[in-house]
Design brief:
Helices cover 35% and strands 20% of the residues. It is α/β, with parallel strands linked by helices and 322 residues long. The chain binds S-adenosylmethionine. S-adenosylmethionine binds next to helix 8. It comes from Talaromyces amestolkiae.
Length: 322
């Protein structure tokens, strides 16, 4: 679950910014108009400089009180104050219209508490900004397409026991590897792998002419952590497709092939990383994958969420595998 870091606009008091009634409606329309114009004028929505800047600030410190300044699309700064270790303030609920929603299934239960852990970037797509929740909190955050949030762990307030399963021991590496290899074989023998290969073969001249710099997978999921077993199966098949791409390039380009296969998913645990690295896939931490994109990248992303289908500048060929 995600929680907001505390945020405010540095030069204005928060109370000055809260808009209500007709004023708010007019302000929302103005923001929506502005955002659409920017999009239609082809302004990059996520610039690499902006992503790099936020990444560097987050990597300086993740301690509570550390300030991360993000410039919104209107170029105004918003300060996010990290709250690592705090008990939850406001839940980010992407499935609801109301960002102030605190009525998650556990907040009713007085025995449990969410402890904020590592901070992360919460990418807001154009659509997410256009659907900015009402009431409008302030004009500046309405333009902020990279918000800072925290992951959390759910604990019993009195015993300190972790209740969300995040401390469960994952399956052994040997077991996870066997599961991955079994599904890799099933994928290779299947019709979908053949279909992918025939699409790639039809485009082989493009690859031979230096068409591809790297293949970057976003959000292909964990297949070793304690998540639902069908999610793990999806994840193995998605990584298997990535390896098919890699093998195809090896076959077509031979020794000249230096195409890197990169993968970014904050859900990876160490076991995923170990197994994927052994397969020749380089694991990147968020947001480094976005910074590796260029106009010769292939992006591989299945069932992406709003957080991982950022349209970064400098990209991209996409494989739509939904
Ligand atoms: C809806 S799930 C899809 C998982 C998998 N592709 C599937 O089809 O089952 C979205 C995935 O995106 C990942 N994700 C979220 N934020 C991300 C980010 N910034 N970069 C890469 N992956 C991200 C999540 O951890 C999750 O694995």
């Amino acid at each position: 679950m995600l929680f907001y870091a505390h945020f405010h606009h540095p030069s204005l008091s928060r109370d000055d910014l809260i808009l209500t009634g007709k004023k708010a409606q007019r302000a929302i329309k103005k923001v929506q108009r502005d955002l659409r114009t920017k999009f239609e004028n082809g302004e990059p929505f996520f610039s690499k400089d902006a992503i790099r800047d936020v990444r560097d600030q987050l990597r300086q410190s993740t301690e509570t009180g550390h300030k991360i300044t993000v410039r919104g699309l209107n170029n105004m700064p918003i300060d996010f104050i990290l709250a690592t270790g705090d008990i939850c303030p406001r839940i980010v609920d992407d499935s609801s219209d109301d960002d102030d929603n605190e009525d998650d299934e556990n907040s009713e239960n007085g025995d449990v508490k969410h402890i904020l852990t590592n901070p992360c970037i919460r990418y807001r797509t154009l659509q997410a900004l256009l659907d900015y929740p009402k009431p409008l909190i302030d004009m500046h955050s309405a333009y902020c397409n990279m918000q800072i949030a925290h992951h959390s762990v759910l604990k019993n307030k009195f015993t300190g026991k972790i209740l969300d399963g995040s401390d469960a021991i994952p399956p052994s590496k040997k077991f996870a590897k066997r599961f991955f290899e079994k599904n890799l074989r099933t994928w290779k023998d299947g019709q979908q792998c053949q279909s992918l290969l025939s699409i790639l073969k039809a485009k082989q001249d493009y690859f031979k002419n230096g068409g591809v710099s790297n293949i970057i997978s976003f959000g292909s999921g964990t297949f070793t952590a304690n998540v639902r077993s069908d999610w793990k199966t999806h994840s193995t098949f998605q990584h298997a497709s990535l390896l098919t791409l890699r093998d195809f390039l090896r076959e077509v380009l031979g020794d000249t092939n230096d195409t890197k296969i990169l993968a970014q998913d904050p859900a990876y645990i160490q076991r995923d990383k170990d197994i994927l690295t052994e397969q020749g896939i380089t694991i990147l931490e968020d947001p480094d994958g976005f910074l590796e994109l260029d106009d010769r990248s292939i992006v591989f992303s299945c069932a992406p969420t709003g957080t991982n289908h950022a349209d970064c500048d400098g990209s991209v060929s996409a494989i739509d595998a939904c």
